[in-house]
Design a protein that fits this description.
GO terms for molecular function: pseudouridine synthase activity; RNA binding. It comes from Tagetes erecta. Pfam families: PseudoU_synth_2. This protein is α+β, with helices and mostly antiparallel strands. The chain contains 13 helices and 22 strands. The strands form five sheets. Strands 12, 13, 14, 15, 16, 17, 18, 19, 20, 21 and 22 form an eleven-stranded mixed beta sheet that branches. A hairpin with a 3-residue loop joins strand 12 and strand 13. Helix 3 packs across helix 4 (about 110-120).
């Protein structure tokens, strides 16, 4: 089930990628709309460092909502060179009709723009409105109860045989003429996350191999393999499909971070997608990475335990903690190289974090033994050797460098009297981290192989060695 609380505070994704430390929720009831729809007041998400801040317009009146000009929303293409301030709307349908008409009227948006949002996968719905968060007002709770009381739900054939929790599950809207009935919850990512680098890349030059079953891509940094919650159009799978002029769209078999470059396998058929997933589950797929670390990393197996939460940054511990996930990687070699100069960092839009010693960096070849999100980034940073350009994990590593023992889960360790104390310490340590990188970090998936090396592919030199 996807709760309204989680919808308002989600960082994905995947795949998505700014980690909130403070979240201000403003979800209020709007009544008396001139188009006769009940809906929940829109909630805008604005990035301010690692904090979600509330846009003043997000707490305005319905007249403010209706004053949004069409000039601001022409079409989703051409793509902006930089991401605009994200904006999410949470709505409840009052009168049955097409999803396109409902959103167009409710948010006073151009129909072509709404059609673009649906094409991008930026519109989601649930048959029943999810439960409001604990911060909801009396009016919000009243509206929720109005559409979810048993007497109302019993009269809705679409949810017959479903529990309320099942009916609150969200799905992506795929057709502009999809009908939405009274009481349907609709989430609209009015300003979805964009990936302008997709339009800057020579995708043909990034193709490593093409077979009957799969394509191997040298993924560029600053792109998403298979999309985000609000954008399934600007993806590596989509653009590689077009570059190869394939009839059927390529399918995602595994992920690497948006800010990471390197080998990615895309399936040409649903059957091979399942086959490759099975190989990953059975640990038949071997991945090697190159990471440019800010400090020396000794060879050998590195072991940590990762806090089991979906959002980033990921907190890891050198000590075993019950319920935390095992993370292991093997550093095969580590060699000293010059730190990338300012022109190279500027070319690849590398965030310039003020690491104290930028004379040398250390290129590490890493065998990934477990595949956790942000694993290499979090583990190297926990050892005091964050990846160059990693604006999430480098600030925390610098804080620990300046004040040894600040990290409660580092080599000095800390004893906690209760699980609550441990969670509180984890949140405080997470707050020492920074924001998601703008485009790239010095991490490359340099090799991928499976079936004991029968299938073997390399990405070529990483950006810092070109």
């Amino acid at each position: 089930m996807v709760s309204l609380s989680s919808l308002l505070s989600f960082p994905k994704l995947h795949n998505f990628i700014i980690a909130p430390v403070v979240i201000q929720r403003t979800l209020a009831t709007v009544t008396g709309h001139r188009h006769n729809h009940h809906h929940l007041r829109h909630h805008r998400r604005c990035y301010s460092s690692s904090t979600y801040a509330s846009d003043p317009a997000a707490t305005g009146t319905i007249s403010t909502l209706n004053s949004i000009r069409h000039e601001e929303y022409g079409r989703l293409l051409p793509c902006p060179s930089k991401n605009v301030v994200p904006r999410i709307e949470h709505l409840v349908v009052r009168e049955e009709g097409s999803i396109l008409d409902f959103i167009t009227k409710s948010l006073d948006l151009p129909p072509l723009y709404v059609a673009d949002l649906i094409h991008f996968g930026a519109v989601h719905y649930a048959l029943v409105c999810p439960k409001p968060p604990s911060t909801a007002t009396t009016e919000e709770i009243k509206l929720y109860k109005e559409f979810t009381k048993p007497s109302v739900l019993r009269n809705r054939p679409s949810i017959k045989g479903k529990t309320t929790r099942e009916a609150q599950k969200t799905f992506r809207v795929t057709q502009v003429d999809q009908l939405v009935e009274t009481g349907t919850y609709v989430r609209v990512h009015v300003r979805p996350k964009r990936f302008p680098r997709c339009y800057e890349i020579d995708w043909r030059s990034r193709i490593i191999a093409v077979t009957e079953s799969y394509v191997v891509l040298n993924k560029p940094a600053g792109t998403s393999v298979g999309g985000t919650t609000d954008n399934i159009e600007e993806t590596c799978a989509t653009f590689a499909t077009r570059a190869l002029e394939l009839t059927n769209p390529l399918r995602t078999t595994h992920q690497i971070d948006n800010c990471t470059e390197g080998c990615v396998v895309l399936a040409r058929t649903a059957d091979y997608c399942s086959v490759f997933h099975k190989k990953i589950r059975e640990k038949q797929v071997k991945k090697l990475y190159l990471a440019l670390a800010a400090a020396y990393v000794p060879s050998g197996v590195m072991t940590h335990y990762m806090r089991p939460v979906k959002r980033s940054p990921k907190v890891v511990s050198e000590d075993v903690i019950k319920g935390w996930n095992l993370c292991q990687l093997e550093v095969l070699e580590c060699r000293r190289v010059p730190w990338p100069n300012a022109l190279v960092e500027q070319k690849y839009e590398i965030d310039d974090i003020d690491w104290p010693n930028k004379e040398f960096a250390y290129e590490c070849k890493i065998n990934l033994l477990t595949g956790r999100t942000h694993q290499i980034r979090a583990q190297l940073a926990a050892r005091g050797a964050p990846i160059v350009g990693d604006s999430i994990y480098m600030p925390a590593a610098m804080a620990e460098l300046a004040s040894p023992g600040l990290n409660p889960f580092g080599k000095y360790g800390k004893q906690f009297e209760s699980e609550i104390d441990r969670e509180s310490a984890a949140e405080e340590w997470a707050a020492k981290h920074g924001k998601e990188p703008r485009v790239a970090i010095a991490l490359q998936a340099c090799q991928i192989s499976w079936d004991e090396g029968d299938h073997f592919y390399e990405a070529g030199p990483p950006w810092w060695a070109q």
